[in-house]
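Batch job 17 of 40 flagged for manual review because the log was empty.
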Amino acid sequence: RGSVGVRGRELVLAGDEGRMSGGGGVAITLSEAGSDGRRGRTIELGGQDMAYRPDLRTLTLSSKAFVRLPEAGLEAESISAVIGRDGRTVESFSAGKGVTGSKGSYSGKSEAAAYDMATRRITLTGKPVLTDGKGGSARGGKLTFDLADDKILIENEGSGRTTTVVRS
């Protein structure tokens, strides 16, 4: 079995419905147990402010919001996540305003991002720029961190160009 942990400066539980809100810096840790010989995964989400609605299974984080997956991380002004029915996984999330995604030495910046657990992909949209640790960069219409295949894809939308700058 997995576990769930919530810590924050201000946490408020609302009645029997299980609604929760928080402020002053909140972090939520979701740990799912491994199965079939696989190791368990731990996902951490946080932000200055948080609201959770169990009836919709939505977790909303704002002001310096972040998600840390085992393979990658993401920061944004706001993140809205759908929590799995088991309460220990993130089915999907979307992020907006000042998005920065990272995987290893690569970093992507954009206006918006989305994650889908089924495909294990984080997709950055809205003028994404990918940089490597050596000063190289690439621009396109869509930037995808494919966590399952350990690949980073940069795609055009329409007839636009993808620009790549490599520095050695």
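Reviewer: the log was empty due to a logging misconfiguration, but the result itself is present. The mean pLDDT is 87. Unflagging and moving on to job 18.
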